[in-house]
Design brief:
171 residues, 5 helices, alpha+beta
């Protein structure tokens, strides 16, 4: 008689900027939070939780771990399947680009805690040379073929009459 003490035929791959990346075996269904716990969480200093992804059946599913953990967005807490890969990229190439007002363009590193438009303007030094604060253009890539152009009135934000605009990687 053979008794199975543990099933190890359902792998889950957890790769990238995790504290304990590796191959784990699913003995029951797991969701993203449980997968993160298996790997001991992610490295806060080097991980890019907003750009995490699940690789499943030759498809890439974006998962915003930051939104899941910091804003309790349960739509990001996807159920995992055997053979899935959770990948957490590093934050080395996370930047926003600032140019205009007669200055040379800058690539500003985007911290994992985020950055708002006013911070990027301050870092670029535009307040020193002057800029048209009622017509700041924000260009955001939504995919490789689609984008969005937003016109932001920074004066309204400074006065407290509008909410700060959070920047995304590549803005």
């Amino acid at each position: 008689m053979v008794e199975v003490s543990e099933y190890k035929s359902q792998p889950l791959y957890i790769l990238g900027q995790f504290r304990n990346a590796g191959i784990f075996f699913m003995d029951r269904p797991f969701n993203v939070i449980q997968g993160l716990a298996l790997a001991g969480g992610y490295d806060l200093a080097t991980a890019n939780p907003k750009a995490a992804r699940i690789i499943r059946d030759k498809k890439v599913l974006p998962v915003d771990v930051y939104e899941l953990l910091m804003r309790a967005d349960q739509s990001q807490n996807v159920w995992l399947k055997p053979g899935d890969t959770i990948f957490m990229p590093d934050n080395k190439n996370q930047v926003v680009f600032v140019f205009g007002a007669g200055k040379t363009g800058l690539a500003i590193p985007l911290p994992s805690s985020g950055m708002v438009l006013l911070q990027a303007i301050a870092m670029a030094g535009f307040q020193e040379i002057g800029y048209h604060a009622r017509r700041v253009f924000l260009i955001r890539s939504l995919s490789t073929t689609r984008g969005q152009l937003m016109v932001v009135d920074v004066d309204l934000i400074v006065r407290g009459d509008a909410l700060p605009v959070e920047l995304c990687e590549g803005d």
